[in-house]
Specification:
The complex is a heterodimer of chains A (341) and B (641).
Chain A: E1 4-9, E2 14-19, E3 29-34, E4 40-50, E5 53-67, E6 71-78, E7 81-86, E8 91-95, E9 106-111, E10 116-117, E11 120-121, E12 124-130, E13 133-138, E14 143-147, E15 153-157, E16 165-172, E17 175-180, E18 184-189, E19 199-202, E20 210-215, E21 222-227, E22 231-236, E23 245-248, E24 254-259, E25 266-271, E26 276-280, H1 282-286, E27 303-305, E28 314-320, E29 323-328, E30 332-337
Chain B: E1 2-5, E2 36-40, E3 45-50, E4 65-70, H1 78-100, H2 107-134, H3 138-166, H4 175-185, H5 190-199, H6 210-219, H7 223-231, H8 239-250, H9 262-281, H10 289-298, H11 302-309, H12 316-326, H13 336-343, H14 352-362, H15 365-372, H16 380-391, E5 398-399, E6 402-403, H17 405-421, H18 427-434, H19 440-450, H20 457-469, H21 473-489, H22 493-502, H23 506-521, H24 538-551, H25 555-568, H26 576-587, H27 596-608, H28 615-632
Parallel strand pairs in B: 1-4
Antiparallel strand pairs in B: 2-3, 3-4, 5-6
Helix pairs in contact in B: 1-2, 1-16, 2-3, 3-4, 3-14, 4-12, 5-6, 6-7, 6-10, 7-8, 9-10, 10-11, 12-13, 13-14, 14-15, 16-17, 17-18, 17-19, 19-21, 20-21, 21-22, 22-23, 24-25, 25-26, 25-27, 26-28, 27-28
The chains are: A mainly beta (341), B mainly alpha (641).
Chain lengths: 341, 641
């Protein structure tokens, strides 16, 4: 079956979109978080077949949870819980009922005023989760570690950097990597009682913000970061400092990246330019540690475009088996079906 | 002072047929009785406030109020936002298509996009209907219903416009398309006809709607259906019925691909027409008035059309029939007389829709656009339709012999774009409209972008990305300047420096660097050294280098750098004390690192800036300098590199 795309306009700019995982059946429910609107919200949706036609699925809204400020990130902490970060500096842990998906989201914990400059609230720009732990970063240059089970702040690394942090990723239980507005990447040991990073390196070339970071699912020493200008850098943490490869990829800012959960050689990325790309990363990750491959030429990388370029930024993607969700600034969400993986 | 917000439903009357141009509002508060003042705010918004204020009262019971008045924009309701966004995509595709086909004719592509616009309107109508069924609130239902009316009209106008100006019609013979248009938008009697045919009973004339349905089918050009209905009449075997049926069957139908020329067709048609006419004049149907009426319609008898006019809500229903029975060979450009004839059937005042349709048929696009602007859809249809026609090359509007087509199109797009820019979320869509009309659009975009409130860095970066995309360096400057100043205010000189560095603005960087130095003097740590890799702040950057060298115990290099900093006299006054005191540990090192010459330089600076360093500290430094001079006077320090 060939790739099939369905778009639906939802009257809200969606900043984050996430599937709700299912164990035995095909995923059909998902979360969206809106931004840049008078009133923003986290919504739960389900796909419904129209007129008994299995091939046409339309999303229907199940519940809405209003929030103050833009939703900046949604990550699952377990099957039915999400951590949501907001531009007013808050982080919330919400739970969806496992059986009644249309019942309203339940709030488990709220960490308010987690990020602030002096007494003024500022945006919590990103978060990541690791077995119930949540790491959040913000414009106030702070890294907070939250415990999603007890609801407290276990560690707060403050004044760590000299400008706002825009992306974060858990490397292992006690290590996180952050990327800031100037493209500086820093690794922090959250168990150590020091405000100094364990390692730091930066995006080569011009100063650009690191907008997203992901870790390779099977080779944890490989880290990928996307930048504000659309380039992608790959670091091998066994040999810090310089990226093993840097790719000039999208023609403007990379907004999100995800390794396909079923196939670690497949990377999906989306950008401000309005495209969604499917990368074959085999050549990049299989080579031995010390060979530097200049990868300016993305043709060698086997990149295919998944949707015709939209006229507005694609903010978020999430894939589950052959189904990819995309959310864009044209106030629409798209479902790409039959992706080969 | 209290601030109240009110929006009056009358501000934007949802009827398509609004005649009044001036609206009157009564200000609800007494305090406005004297000296009312008014000021514009961002976008279509202004504030009214009392010009003379009563100040002697406490805030709580003050009469002073500010009224925020804004136009209610129906396009901003969630259900219509879908339309706005989807149309934005079609609009951008159209611009791209026209860019790609600067020289070649690209009618097929344009037709596709025109259909896309129509399907967008159709989806919107479906959504509106669905919502109307669900909604319980009467007021909301009313507004939804008026939206539905508006978009039905738009769909109808757009479709006709597509037939007359965008579609590729073989031989320009427009009749089949017009008939289709009538059938699609004014489906009168169709259901009655269908149910009668389904029942298929002789004697159907007992149904009170029978004759209306038959005549309706004839007027819509569905001759076959009309014949089938007539067969259901109980006396369908009578000679009158057979006579009419023969005429109906024999009616020649023109087909471009039918293999006969239009001339030939005209001859056979005229022949048929003469036959029908003679049947009528012979009065052979006089006993069956309904059949005679049908025959009169078929020979294009104006009085017959007048007779049936009252049965229809508009004259558009009749348009297809009139063309079919009077001028079936009519080309696209020959619709004016038919329009005038059909419109003439309706006495009395004409609605906007009447005027628009007639103007379309007459080819008066200027009038069409003028009337479309009166539609209460905030300019959605006027803008997109005008742009479509403009790209198809079908729009030519002269004003005093000057071609103003492009100006009209641009001004509509600018207005629409500016309107969207007001909205918190739709600003990026608005921006893409403004960008489609350079150079004026970009100038406006610049002014509007600068005024968008920035709540977070994410928003700032989005605005920067858009500004870079459209080449608006001034916006980049303003946004970075704003962010830098904001960070500076909250005491974060590092972040301020970053934002300053983004625009390569020396002033911003200098300001941030100065604050960093001042804060260092006050005991705060220095910004991270890597921050300054590309900064234009030489002093701060060098000073950080000095610290790094010192930390790494490279005293000789550190000393050299420090002396060069001192001798370059770059330092602002407040920083001299720090710089001079930094020499102290270097003067006291075990092996001398500052040469005699260096020492002289430092001494000179110390005396020149005696106000920066006074008292005990100055004495201490003088003592150290003297000691260093003593041990290095006769020593030649080797250069390390």
């Amino acid at each position: 079956m060939s790739i099939n795309i369905e778009g639906t306009f939802v009257s809200q700019k969606i900043n984050k979109i996430r599937w709700i995982p299912e164990e035995y059946v095909e995923t059909k429910h998902f979360f969206t978080g809106s931004w840049d609107d008078d009133e923003n919200s986290v919504k739960v949706w389900t796909f419904e077949s129209v007129h008994d036609d299995e091939n046409v699925e339309n999303p229907r809204e199940l519940s809405e949870y209003k929030v103050a400020g833009d939703v900046t990130e949604i990550k699952l902490t377990d099957k039915n819980k999400i951590a949501v970060s907001l531009s007013n500096g808050e982080v919330r842990l919400l739970e969806i009922s496992a059986y009644e998906r249309n019942s309203p989201l339940r709030e488990i914990y709220t960490w308010s005023k987690l990020h602030h400059i002096n007494s003024e609230r500022c945006s919590c720009t990103a978060l990541d989760t690791f077995e119930g732990d949540i790491v959040t970063v913000g414009e106030d240059e702070k890294v907070n570690i939250l415990n999603g089970r007890r609801g407290d702040v276990t560690r707060s690394i403050s004044d760590t950097d000299s400008c706002s942090i825009h992306s974060v990723c858990f490397l292992k239980l006690n290590e996180v990597i952050t990327g800031n507005l100037r493209g500086h990447m820093k690794i922090w040991d959250i168990k150590r009682d020091s405000n100094k990073p364990v390692a730091s390196f930066h995006f080569p070339g011009e100063e650009v913000a690191a907008t997203c970071i992901v870790q390779h699912p099977t080779q944890p020493h490989i880290i990928l970061a996307g930048s504000e200008c659309g380039s992608l850098a790959v670091w091998d943490l066994r040999m810090n400092k310089f990226p093993t490869s840097q790719l000039s990829a999208h023609s403007s800012g990379v907004t999100e990246m995800q390794f396909h959960p079923e196939n670690p050689n497949k990377l999906i990325t989306c950008s401000l330019y309005g495209d969604v790309w499917d990368w074959n990363m085999e050549s990049l990750t299989k080579k031995s540690g010390d060979s530097y491959v200049p990868l300016d030429d993305k043709a060698t990388m086997n990149v295919t475009s998944l949707i015709p370029t939209l006229h507005k930024a694609v903010n978020s993607i999430h894939c589950s088996k052959g189904r990819v969700l995309c959310a864009a600034d044209n106030e629409a969400i798209y479902l790409i079906k039959n992706l080969k993986y | 002072m209290n601030s109240t917000r009110f929006s009056d439903a009358n501000l934007n009357s949802h009827t398509i047929y609004n005649k009044k141009r001036v609206k009157q509002f009564n200000l609800p508060h007494k305090c406005f009785e004297r000296n009312v003042a008014c000021a514009w705010r961002r976008g279509n918004k202004f504030s009214i406030f009392p010009g003379s204020q009563t100040t002697n009262k406490t805030i709580e019971n003050s009469d002073n109020k500010i009224l925020d008045i804004r136009q209610e924009i129906s396009l901003f309701t969630p259900i219509l936002r879908k339309l706005v966004n989807e149309a934005n995509g079609a609009f951008l595709s159209l611009q791209r298509a026209s860019d790609m086909s600067k020289n070649s004719d690209n009618q097929v592509e344009y037709l596709k996009l025109s259909r896309q616009y129509r399907s967008i309107v159709r989806v919107c109508l479906e959504n509106l209907q669905e919502a109307t069924e669900k909604v319980s609130d009467g007021l909301e239902r009313n507004s939804l219903q008026s939206f539905t009316t508006i978009f039905y009209s738009i769909e109808c106008i757009w479709h006709l416009c597509e037939i007359l100006y965008i579609d590729v019609i073989p031989g320009e013979i427009v009749l089949p398309y017009i008939l289709e248009w009538v059938r699609f938008h004014f489906p009168c009697h169709e259901q009655t006809a269908a149910s009668l045919l389904e029942a298929c009973e002789k004697g159907s004339e007992d149904n009170p709607e029978y004759w209306n349905a038959v005549i309706g089918m004839v007027v819509q050009g569905r001759i076959d259906v009309a014949r089938a209905l007539l067969k259901l009449h109980s006396s369908s075997d009578s000679s009158e019925f057979k006579l009419l049926d023969n005429s109906m069957r024999a009616m020649p139908v023109y087909n471009v691909y039918g293999g006969i020329s239009s001339g030939e067709f005209t001859i056979s048609w005229k022949h048929w027409y003469a036959e029908c006419r003679s049947k009528y004049t012979s009065g052979s149907l006089a006993l069956q008035p309904q059949l005679e009426l049908i025959l009169r319609i078929m020979i294009g008898d104006y009085t017959a059309f007048e007779t049936i006019r009252i049965k229809y809500t508009s004259w558009f229903d009749m348009l297809g029939g009139w063309i079919l029975f009077t001028m079936p060979w009519a080309k696209r450009r020959e619709m004016a007389s038919a329009a005038a004839a059909c419109a003439g059937l309706t006495p009395g005042e004409k609605t906007h829709l009447d005027i628009i349709i007639q103007a379309l048929l007459e080819g008066d696009l200027h009038q069409v656009i003028h009337e479309m602007q009166q539609v209460s859809d905030n300019g959605w249809s006027a803008t997109h339709l005008t742009d479509m026609l403009y790209h198809c090359g079908k729009l030519q509007i002269l004003d005093k012999q000057i071609d103003v087509t492009a100006q009209i199109r641009d001004s509509l797009i600018l207005e629409y774009g500016s309107l969207l820019m007001e909205h918190k979320s739709l600003w990026s869509a608005g921006l893409s409209y403004l960008a489609a009309t350079p150079p004026e659009g970009l100038k406006r975009a610049e002014l509007l972008l600068e005024r968008i409130p920035i709540e977070s860095e994410a928003k700032a970066m989005r605005i920067l990305a858009e500004a870079n995309k459209y080449g608006l360096p001034n916006v980049v400057q303003t946004v970075c300047g704003c962010m830098s100043t904001r960070r500076l205010k909250s005491g974060n000189s590092g972040a301020a420096l970053t934002w300053g560095g983004r625009t390569r603005s020396t002033e911003l960087c200098a300001r941030a660097a100065e604050q960093a130095l001042r804060r260092y003097c006050a005991g705060a740590p220095l910004p991270h050294a890597e921050l300054l890799l590309t900064g234009s702040t030489v002093l701060l950057s060098k000073y950080c280098d000095f610290h790094n060298l010192y930390k790494n115990r490279e005293f000789r290099k550190a000393a050299k750098l420090l002396v060069s900093l001192i001798t370059s006299k770059l330092s602002p006054d407040f920083f001299w004390e720090t710089l001079l005191l930094d020499t102290l540990p270097l003067l006291e090192t075990e092996t001398p690192v500052l040469s005699a010459d260096d020492t002289y330089e430092i001494m000179l600076c110390l005396e020149l800036h005696s106000c920066a360093l006074t008292g005990k500290k100055a004495d201490m430094l003088r003592f150290a300098l003297a000691r260093n001079l003593e041990r290095t006077a006769l020593l030649n320090l080797p250069d390390e590199d």
